[in-house]
Amino acid sequence: MDLLKQYGNSLELQLEGVVTTREPAQLYEPIRYILELGGKRLRPILTLMSCDFFGKDHMEAMNAALAVELFHNFSLIHDDIMDNAPLRRGEETVHEKWDLNTGILSGDAMLILAYQLFESYEPKLFRDLARLFSKTAIEVCEGQQFDVDFEQREDVSIDEYIRMIDFKTAVLIGASMKMGAIVAGASSSCQENIYEFGRNLGIAFQLQDDYLDAFGNPDTFGKQIGGDIIANKKTYLYLTALDLCDASESAELKHLYSIRPKDPTDKIAIVKRLFESSGAVEAAQKLILSYTDRANDVLNKIEIPEDRKANLKAFGEWLMNRKV
To answer: Which residues in 242-256 are b (16+ Cβ under 10 Å) and which e?
Structure first.
């Protein structure tokens, strides 16, 4: 999306210098590696865009944006370890390329480096940013624990699942936008509304990610297709399919989510067929649209020029229809 490129270019220039390889190299090289894998950089770009849209030069929010990107990648390193994931953005995950202990320690270092970036702001801004960052970080951890807990439960509800992705994914997107508003000196109501805008888009984003995990193009998605199915993750697609399938299909789906075959090809194919035939895919697409609409309803309350509101709506539409 062209709107994001100007912020992305600024971010990439600054990101190159935020982590230098120094001794011990075994600690810092994995950090540079995961950052150099690229990715969409959506969260830090949203921090810069939000600051700009509320009337201050986006460079003022650069350190906050860099902190968001470091935190996000820290969480990815640890998520990949917990999921035993072999690929991230089409390349080896950190724990696969190095080892488990290196992945844990390098991830921890990224979290500390993220906090250090807030030290460049004057005391009140530092306090407000660090407070939001800490609140968001613990919510992300809570969301991750919910996700782990759900793997052992057979009674996960759709509402519980939405709460999990809200904490695991959406709150960080909301916080990213609110950080830009804080740096720009936006009013409290604008800060809260841009947070809710981002949070609703974050839920839509994760629902779309769940869809792409099953039905995305492996050449563009950057992760193993069917990874959630292999790991027996109870996503919205799975929970909705259980509700919509007949008794025999529901039993088949539950059975498939109780096994981990060495070759998961057939399992993935059957599960995807059940997702489609049950209507779960269509339901997911409708829910993605619903959360995008909720975000736009909040956006109408925000005191920014109409052309900037239009840009944010366009961003939401792009996010909803993305393929990567």
So the answer is: bebbeeebbeebeeb
